[in-house]
Amino acid sequence: MRTSSHQSAASVAPASPVSPTSPTVIAISKNLLNPHLEPVIPMNRIVYSTADPETGSHANVQTDNDPLACNSHSLFVSPQTLLRVRLCLLVYTAAFVLWRFGQNKLAYLHFLTNWSWILLLAYLLAATLASHHAMQSKAAQQTDSQRASRLGRLLPWLFAASQTLVWLVAVVFWLLLTATLRSAPSAIERLSLINGHAGNLVVATVDLVLCKTALLPRHSLAPATVVAAFLCMVWTVRALFPDVAYPYAFIGKWMDPVGGIQRDGVTGFLTGVGVGSIGLLIAWLFFWVPLGLIRLRVYIATRAARKQ
Q1: Residue 113: pLDDT above 60?
Q2: Please, which residues have CB within 8 angstroms of residue 245's CB and are 6 or more apart in sequence?
Q3: Distances in whole angstroms, Cα of residue 284 to Cα of each of 76, 153, 193
Q4: What is the pLDDT of residue 98?
Q5: What does the pLDDT read at residue 262?
């Protein structure tokens, strides 16, 4: 009887709280999601620890299970501020995309840079809706709807695709294609080129720093799929309209031999497979840039919390 009583008391005793100095997790003291939801950062990914204010017990829940909550909250600012910032970023991005599309019409889709802007616009629209939904749910004290759940599952993939492409086109442009700035027909066009390959990087980085969205290795499929779709579009246009030049000179040099004669048959197919494989590898490599920045964001937030 004594042993049974002891076991019964132990079964209802509160679990010991997670130590903020544990070698596997580091607790961030400032909570922006919920008074009873304390962010905890392990070595490999972010989790949340639900802390009971009376017992101090914790139950770890991976953020990957609730990407909507991660995307609509920040380690540095309030959800309301994040929503306002995203509205500003959304308006700026939409204005630039609509202006450039109005000038170029369908030719706007000929360049990967513009695909990165469209993806960034799609992500910001989804992220702004997520932030707005989070504010409404908090005010009404409602749980997430099925539509919100689908939005939450989509957000990390849009985030991965837009962030990766923004970095890819910025690096390629400023390393290989800066000669186009000198050949721009006007100052407005030159400023547009600069903004097109730098403005999107600023917008994407601001959102990455502020939100809590986490990426996993499987999300690298998103930018790889986009790059594959872009290359298929380029080859389809080239096959249907041989007079249309490749969007980038280095693709033309790979696909067409000296003299400008287009490769066809088995040679063209194998060359296309080779170029596509290189493109997918580059997209996969650039995926690790935003993934590394997320780790840096977590590290900065953790250090800031430790100093409080």
Answers
A1: yes
A2: 252
A3: 29, 21, 25
A4: 96
A5: 53
Residue 57 has what DSSP assignment?
Answer: -
58 SS3 class: strand
Nearest to residue 233, comparing CAs of 251, 249, 220? Answer: 251
Q: 214, 231 in Cβ contact below 8 A?
A: no
Cα separation, 138 vs 169, whole angstroms: 38
Q: What is the largest CA-CA distance in the chain?
A: 94
Rounded to whole angstroms, how far apart are CA atoms 250 and 245?
11
**Do residues 217 and 299 touch, judged by C-beta distance below 8 A?**
no
Q: No. of H helices and E strands in the chain?
A: 11, 4
Is 71 buried (19+), middle (13-18) or exposed (0-12) by CB count in 10 A? buried
Note the pLDDT of residue 144.
Answer: 52
Residues 6+ apart with CB under 8 A from 21: none
CB atoms near residue 254 (< 10 Å):
16
User: Using CA atoms, how far apart are residues 75 and 32, in angstroms rounded to an integer?
Assistant: 7
Q: How far is CA 62 from CA 13, 65, 158, 216, in A?
A: 24, 6, 20, 12
Inter-residue contact 112 to 169 (CB < 8 Å)? yes
CB burial string 90-120: b at 16+ within 10 A, e below: bebbeebbeebbeeeeeebbbbbbbbbbbbb
Residue indicated by tokens 């204005």: 95
Confidence at 5, pLDDT banded by 50, 70, 90 = very low
Distances (CA, A) of 203 to 171, 175, 219: 16, 20, 20
258: left (phi over 0), alpha (psi -120 to 50) or beta: beta
Q: What are phi and psi of 120, to 5 degrees?
A: -65, -40
For 303, other C-beta atoms within 10 Å of its C-beta total 10
Q: pLDDT (tens digit, 9 = 90+) per residue, 134-175?
A: 888 765 555 556 667 788 889 999 999 999 999 999 999 988
